[in-house]
Amino acid sequence: MANARIGLVGLGVMGANLSLNIAENGFPVAVYNRTGAVTDAFIASAGALSERLVASKTYEELVAALPRPRAVIIMVKAGGPVDAVIEGLAPLMQEGDMIIDAGNADFHDTRRREAALKAQGLNFIGMGVSGGEEGARHGPSIMAGGNPSSYEAIREIIEAIAAKHQGQPCAAHFGPDGAGHFVKTVHNGIEYADMQMIAEVYGILRDGGTERERCAPAQIGHLFEQWNKGPLNSYLVEISGKVLQAFDPETDRPMVEMIVDKAGQKGTGRWTAIEAITLGQSPSAIEAAVAARAWSAAKETRRAGAELFGDLEAEPLPRPSEEVLERALLAAKIIAYDQGFKILSAASEHYDWGIDLASAAEVWREGCIIRSALLDDMASAIREGLPHDQLIFAPRFVEMLRDGAGALRQVVAYAASAGLPVPAFANALAYFDTMRQGRGTTDLIQAQRDFFGAHGFERVDGGAGQHGPWGGAAG
Ligand code: NDP
Questions:
Q1: Where is each 6-phosphogluconate dehydrogenase C-terminal domain found (predicted)?
Q2: pLDDT tens-digit series, residues 323-350
Q3: For ligand 1, atom 46, which residue shows the shortest CA distance?
Q4: The pTM is what?
């Protein structure tokens, strides 16, 4: 007998918290987990909300608990596990029913799953959810894709559980098939860049300058806490401040110093870079952040490198002030977001999704990991129209960048002089400098290509497909 409004498969960290969020908002949820003991423990720990949870031990029980058209959210490990759940669930569902994948799927998988389920008469929503455990429980940012009428059927629930910005739900439908998961992927790509840039500032303050200038983690954390009260106000700056001021209860040393400097990555940052390159884009700050994580994994190699080159003399410029670092971080961050929005725009055009970029900025204002005060300005700037599709050309950001670009340059110059790696900052600056150079150096690249491959070039005084006077020297 149908006694739940929606189903949810996968009671890991995200699924358990999302179920409680849905139940708390008044919608009974039928829950299922592959390992039944996890379901029992979840129900036992749900307190008063257990009244709105329907424990199911089989897919049959789950499906039987739902009214038609049924809607089941899948919140399991991305990749094969999602296909395994669909394989178990789909044969039990009927025409018009809906499966919602709320994990971090590769949007190509979402497109494939949507097409396969459509052929079986089932609807499929690919839905990115951001905000980690806390967000899932009390209000995540939600990015959905798929058939718009299917989204309409679950919209009431999605908007109720989502984070709110001034009363407006941070949830939206971005377009057909993979659009929602793609917006989530780019969100994560931007998250990589944002995190890396904050870490680069930490590196400069920790390792740069004279012995007296070098800061302990707690000092840097305190500075981030101050920055969080200004234009850099954001979740990532806030948590970085907290993390850096935490101490290890076992050794009493700064917690961050007890952590091996090797970062993991689940794939979304990498997917952003790969898809961008496929689309002829290059989000250099995001790519640099992905690269920095990959390089970090080679800990033993870096140790060997330190033996060989660690003593190379650097001639550092004076270390930039905290105020300069703050302005540099703000400028670099705007450039990274510009690159993220450009990928969204390119993918939307390529896949014919019709993604509303302003809506992406709006749903990222609360609930998600990249939430920040800047996103409100970004949403407004996009709504006002971006000259040449560039966020950095929007009047309100032109002003900020005219103010911050010098600081960014000072920080990159300092880091290079001191031998400190700042890949995301340096790549953000290179992109900015390229975008403000009316005449670049690709005229020479075009000449080289024409010389060795007769590729042709366009003349400044008119005429495409021209060739140079290389005298048949091409090889
Ligand atoms: P995990 O990614 O660790 O997945 C755990 C769940 O997956 C468990 O319920 C587990 O069941 C189930 N599972 C694993 N393999 C299978 C399978 N073959 N068949 C059926 N079920 C399976 O949990 P999270 O909650 O961290 O993440 C869920 C999704 O949300 C992922 O796609 C993740 O990338 C995404 N996400 C996670 C965030 C986070 O902060 N953790 C933030 C945003 C998105 P069992 O108990 O039986 O092992």
A1: 180-471
A2: 999 999 999 999 999 999 999 999 999 9
A3: 35
A4: 0.95
